[in-house]
Structures are given as C-alpha cells and as structure tokens.
Amino acid sequence: MGATVALPFLDAHIRASGASARQARPPIRLICIEQVHGAAGSSIYGAQQNLWAPAMTGRDFDLSPTSLKPLEAWREHVTIISNCDVPSADPTEAREIGGDHFRSSATYLTQAYPKRTEGADIECGTSMDQLHAQRFGQDTPIPSMQLCIENVDQSGGCGYGYSCAYTDTISWASPTRPLPMIRDPRVVFDQMFGVLGNGSAAERRERRQQDLSILDWVRESSKRLERRLGAADRVRLGDYLDNVREIERRLQAVERRNDSGEPRELPMAPRGVPDSFADHVKLMFDLQMLAFRSDITRVFSFKLGRDGSNRVYKESGSTGAFHIVSHHAENPERVRELAKINEYHVSMLPYLLKQLKETADGDGTMLDNSVVIYGSPMGNPNQHNHKRVPFLVAGHAGGAITGGVHLKAKNGTPLANVMLSLLHALGHDTLQGFGDSEGTFSWK
Amino acid sequence: MIKELALAAALLAFAASASAQDTKVTTADFAGTWNIEVMSHQIALVIEPAEGNKVTATMMMMGRDTLLKGELTDRTLTLTGIKTETNGAPEPQHAAHEPPSNAKPIVVTLQEDGTIAGEMMTTAGPMQWTGEKLRAKKKG
Questions:
Q1: Which of A59, A242, B10, B28 gives 20 to 30 Å between its CA and that of A205?
Q2: A185-192 vs A231-259: helix axis angle to the nearest 10?
Q3: pLDDT band at residue B10, thresholds of 50, 70 and 90?
Q4: Is residue B68 part of a domain?
C-alpha cells in the first residue's frame, strides 16, 4: 500500500528551484472565519459601552471594555474595522422579512444577495476565499478547504423559503455552487494527506483501529530524505513530522473517547468531533497550520457556528443558549451576557495567531504572509439586523496591511468595500468590484 | 424684551405644532411593505390603500399570512383580521383559519419620522412594536 505525506517548506526546496530565499516570495495564505449571531457591541447599548469596537480609532485603542480583549497581546497584528454594514443580507421584499438567519451566512464572504428559493435554482455570489483559491490556490494539491464546527449538512428548505445551502456554507465556488464544509477533523486529516486515495476502506479502518500512524507508511522514505538534508532542514522536518503525529494522536484519542460508550455532549456528531468547542476549534486550527506548513492548501474558510444554534459555551461564563442569549431584548445585563460569549469565541484566535507567528516563512513569519479574517454578517442579533457588523483582520498580507489600528468606517459603508480592498491586498490588483461594493476601503 | 422673546418662541412652537397636526395623513402614507419588530421578531406588514379611508393589509410571519382590513382615523390605522393562510407552512396544532372572536385589533400610528408604531396582542400579552418601511434596493 503506497502513501504520501506532504513536506514542510525547506531550504532544499529553494536550492532545488534555483531561487534565493529573498526571491522566493512566500504566497499569501487566507483563513476566513465566520461566527454567527453578530455581536453584543452592535446593539445601541453595546456600542455605547464599546463591547465590540473600541472607543478610540487609530493606534491608541483600548481593548479592555471590548470582546476583543483576548487579542491585547496581538494588537500590533490586528486591524479592527468597525461600523460596516452587510446590506446584501437585508430583506428586499415582504416574504424575506424575518428570514435573516436563513440567508446571513451566504452573504458573509460573497457580500451578494441570496435568491430566496428552496429549489435547485439557488444563487448568491462567488465568495472571496474562492476568488483567492481560484487565482492563487492552483499550485497546491488542494486549492481550498472548507471547515466547520457545527452540523451543517441539512437539506431542502431551512426556513422562510430559503434552501439550507444558504445556511450550511460560507464558501461559494460560483454564484450557483455552494461548497460543502467538513466538520470531522479526521476527514480533514485524511483529505489533506491523501489517505482517502490510499488503500481500501477496510485497510484504513484497520489502521485506525490499531492506532497506527500515516507516518508508519512513509517511515523508510522519510529516513532516506533526512540523510540528504542539511541540519536546519532536518530539524524542520523532524518538528513537522512530530506535529503530524501529535495531531494524529489527538484525533485517535477523540475517537477512542467517542467510541467508549461514555455519554457524549454531542451524541449526533461524528466520532472524530471532540465534544469541547475549544478542543474542536484548536484541532481544526492545528490542521490548518499543518496544511500551510506543507503547502497542501493556502486557503481555508472556517464556520464556527450555525445560525439559530443553541449551543451553550459554559467556559464563557454564560450558561445561556447562544441563540436565546443573542435575543437580549436590549436589556443591558443580557447584552453583557452575549458579550461574554463573543469574547470567548474571540479567545480562540490567539492559538492560531501564535502558531502563525512562530512559523518561519521566507524572510519573516507566516503571520506576516497571511490574512485571517474574523467576523459575522449579522450586527445586532436581537433585531436580526446587519448594521455595525463585527469584523477584524489579523496578519499582514505580505506587508500590505500594517495592523495595530482601529479603523471606523463612515456610516452606511458596505463591508464589501473592505473585502474588495482585502482582495487587492491579497494580490487581486485588477478587481474592480466585489459583491455590492461601492468603492474601496483605506487601510489608513 | 424678554417677554417679547418668550411670546415669539411660544408662537413659533404653536405654529410648528399646528403645522404637524394639520398635515393630512392619508392611507397612501401607510402604503407599502413595513418591517415590524416585535419581541425580537420581524414581521412583514404589507398595506394597500382601498376606497376612501379604508385599507387592506397582509401580515406575514414564518410562512403564515394573515389578511387584514382597516380604517384610518387621524394618524392611526386600526386593523382587524379577516383570515389566516398557511402558504405551505406547518399547520399549528390549534390553527384556526378564522381569527378568534376575541382577537384585538392592531393599532398602527404613523410617526413624524416616517416610521410606524403600535400595539398588538401576542401570546405574552399586548406588546408595543415599531416598523420601518422596506427600502427598495437592487438585488445581486
């Protein structure tokens, strides 16, 4: 049985291509993260109390009252963009009123109006992650990957006459082609390492049952390779293979726990899905880092929740169900409870940013050469509106984005303007418009 | 001098108030699709002028339409139900196609800023609501 394991970027690759490290400009990687149900800071009370966006624009912003507090140590790498709207998610006719949860996610990365239908004639727009993958993802084994944390494989109509396709994914390869998202980290791992194409289903099952590693398949060839590498590359390769094995061990531990017969918090979730939100998110981030280090793919979209989800995030300090808490009735105490959940979700980001920062990439780090966006297409979830939506960018896009700044858009600025400028920063220089953009957005 | 200023201010206030009161509100001012927010839910209310000071209206919520009729008095429309259509939405267990005989009318008042506000009965009792007219915008 043959198997392949992608390699991390090594000095040997540069020598083999005849380029110097300076000439080999690293590609810009993109991770687009969506959280549903907007933010506490998008309500009138929440905005007054700066529960999302800081009071000060510019570089001297204070994160302490905001849900972005967990990013304090990362502030120089973060660009907060506040006061933007997502008008493409607003209703345009009577029957669309109230259906915001069923169309929001489709608008996040497309900034396009989703056609209200439950049939096969779904239509929205091409998402920004896919525009990037179609142009810059063709040199990698997988152009892009789509990941999620909650169940998104519903079919038919989800509500208010909208197909579940609009709720289930944030990635659209074309206006009529929504891409499925993967919830099970095991499936992500197997796809990344081509395991699905190696051996029969029975052989793969046997390997898992025996807790064998994919590295066992390539042990001899990796030893041969190691002997031909320089000292620095040998360390890099060793760290990388250790990392692959470590992630595999964690996957196996989750599967053993879920197969043990012990009660699960998420009984309907696949066996590879940890019950803990944080464990699941971290595993997915680790897989994204693994993919970036080995250049399996350069583009990810990552959906942290599903609209209408009533998951409880006890670690946030809130014991309420997410959707119910999001309908805070503008009550200050309840708005603050939602802010706790918002902060908890944001607190996942440093785990990813740390790894990006610690990974060397060309002359800098992978954080220098990446863009991570985090936001929601909803503003105030109590009103289901799409005004003053939460949004931030981490990373520097190869120097195109300075970071360390809070930029407040003029009232009524569509988020599409920001995304158009982001695409320009990612190298799509000639793009004239994106979604319902009305112009570009200045990073200064 | 102070007395003169006070009198002028009072006259101006009276004139402004009289002007607002005198602005004739017609059923055409209510015509259109309204996005009503009540208890964190959004409901569509489509109002069409009929003869004289009368209107017909449709309230749409979660695939269920309630047909209404109403009459304008001063700045206030009073709407009462005619019947409910389910439009393929699941039938509630105690669904009645005719509104219950004890259903209270929906009172709609046009505000100075062009929005509407009012009160309607809900399962949680009478609730205040506000509504904005749906803006026409391009699709795509």
A1: A242
A2: 140
A3: very low
A4: yes
CA distances from A49 to A35, A43, A176, A426 (A): 21, 10, 41, 34
Taking contacts as CB-CB distances below 8 angstroms, the residues of chain A near B39 are 329
Quick one: A159 and A97 in the same domain?
A: yes
Q: Which domain holds residue B61?
A: 25-133
For residue A113, give the nearest of B40, B44, B140 by CB distance: B140
B13 within some domain: no
Per-residue pLDDT tens digits for A299-316: 999 999 999 999 999 999
Query: What is the tally of structural domains in chain B?
Result: 1
Structural domain that includes position A101? 30-183+278-285+299-425
Where does residue A79 rank: exposed (0-12), middle (13-18), buried (19+ CB within 10 A)?
A: buried
Q: Which of residues 21-50 of B touch A (CB under 8 A)?
A: 33, 35, 37, 39-44, 46
Q: Measured between beta carbons, which residues in chain A are less than 8 angstroms from residue B138?
A: 436
Which chain B residue is nearest to residue A381, measuring alpha carbons?
B40
B43-87 pLDDT, tens digit each: 999 999 999 999 999 999 887 899 999 999 988 999 998 776 666
- Nearest-Cα distance to chain A for B88, in Å, is 10
What distance in Å separates the CA atoms of residue A107 and residue A379, rounded to the nearest whole number? 13
Name the residue facing A94 among B33, B135, B139 (closest C-beta).
B33
Q: What is the DSSP string of B25-44?
A: P-GGGG-EEEEEEETTEEEE
Q: Residue B17's pLDDT band (boundaries 50, 70, 90)?
A: very low
Q: How far apart are CA A395 and CA A364, in angstroms?
A: 12
Nearest to A94 among B37, B39, B46 (CB): B46
Position A200 scores a pLDDT of 65
Low-confidence ranges of chain A (pLDDT < 70): 1-5, 9-25, 194-201, 203-212, 217-219
Same domain, A148 and A62: yes
- CATH code for the domain in which residue A98 is found: 3.40.720
Q: Which chain A residues have a beta carbon less than 8 Å from that of B124?
A: none
